[in-house]
Design goal:
Helices cover 43% and strands 15% of the residues. Helix 6 packs parallel to helix 7.
């Protein structure tokens, strides 16, 4: 269907009535399936203090994920760098690269992945905020490549263990700012379309146009990450998507949405007018339908944004439906 590769972003969702252990086991199972179905890379997200998403530590789970798979690229989508020391992040991912050479991606982002309160808890008194993110990325890049970091006083720092195959550093984001930073620092760029689907259509063109060759990458490379639910029919996919809509409502209204609700719970839920207004005022474009419908919509998305790669995020209450969504899409995309 197209030469654009498909990859996966997994947030390790927790189902209502399930557990975090179930979510992690499902992540490992899904990764093995997606490798068999031909997906290019498998990234893990970082979220904190969430009853609905178990993936709080990508680097820990990646250590297991690498041993459960054989060749698919694995990585973070992403590490929320303002929370951490670039030195420690470099150590963690260099170690992963030694364990799984030429397979590890290190995607970093600026968003907190949590509430302001949890953000302050993670900082634990540190005065280093998100405003230092560009400098932190530059230091991290240097530590991965065993050259001098840019921060005064860190020039002689080197992160161990040394490796001939350092992880591939990526910039993640959902705004013009992140696209500009990725271009300025010469990094591959992954845009979270599932977070911000109202972005201008030329954002990837702007990234390419302003890209500066670096030691990391000599040419620009972009990835677009939409939310997708694929099923045997358009009607079934729309039915499965009702769980996501109810869960998303919790985020919009500022309350903890909890675990992902079942389709039956979502169908029985009585939305009041304020809730419907909140959903209308905060649309997040998702692609829902049969394999032919989803493929057609993804091709339109590629025509509009011109990415080099698509990274698919899918959450359904039923794990088998989630697996089937990725399988159907892979079959149709590669037909």
């Amino acid at each position: 269907m197209t030469t654009i590769p498909l990859s996966v972003l997994d947030q390790s969702p927790i189902r209502r009535g399930g557990s975090a252990a179930d979510a992690i086991n499902e992540t490992l199972q899904l990764a093995k399936h997606c490798e068999d179905w031909g997906y290019h890379r498998y990234w893990l997200a970082e979220h904190h203090a969430s009853e609905g998403l178990a993936g709080c530590s990508p680097e820990v789970l990646l250590a297991r994920l690498g041993s459960e798979t054989k060749k698919i690229r694995i990585g973070s989508g992403g590490i929320m760098l303002p929370h951490y020391s670039p030195y420690k992040v470099a150590e963690n991912f260099k170690l992963l690269s030694i364990m799984y050479p030429r397979r590890v991606d290190l995607g970093v982002g600026r968003a907190p992945g949590s509430s302001p309160y949890i953000n302050s808890v993670l900082a634990y008194g540190s005065q280093i905020g998100a405003e230092y993110f560009p400098q932190m990325v530059a230091d991290l890049d240097a530590l991965l490549r065993d050259v001098d970091p840019v921060t005064p006083g860190m020039e002689k720092a080197r992160a161990y263990p040394r490796t001939d195959t350092p992880p591939a550093l990526w910039m993640l984001g959902s705004s013009d700012d992140s696209a500009g930073l990725a271009a300025a620092q010469g990094l591959p760029y992954c845009f979270a379309y599932f977070i911000n689907s109202n972005i201008r259509s030329d954002i990837i063109h702007s990234y390419r146009n302003n890209f500066k060759e670096s030691e990391v990458a000599d040419v620009p490379y972009s990835c677009l990450c939409p939310f997708v639910i694929c099923a045997e029919s358009d009607e079934e996919a729309q039915r499965l998507a009702k769980s996501r809509e109810l869960w998303y409502l919790g985020l919009l209204t500022g309350r903890e949405p909890g675990a992902v609700p079942s389709v039956e719970e979502a169908e029985a839920y009585q939305y009041n007018e304020q809730e419907r207004a909140a959903l209308r005022a905060n649309p997040r474009h998702i692609i829902v339908g049969s394999s032919s419908t989803v493929t057609e919509e993804l091709i339109k998305l590629c025509d509009k944004f011109k990415p080099d790669e698509l990274m698919i995020l899918t959450i359904t209450f039923d794990f088998e439906a989630r697996c089937r969504s990725y399988e159907l899409l892979a079959q149709a995309w590669n037909a």
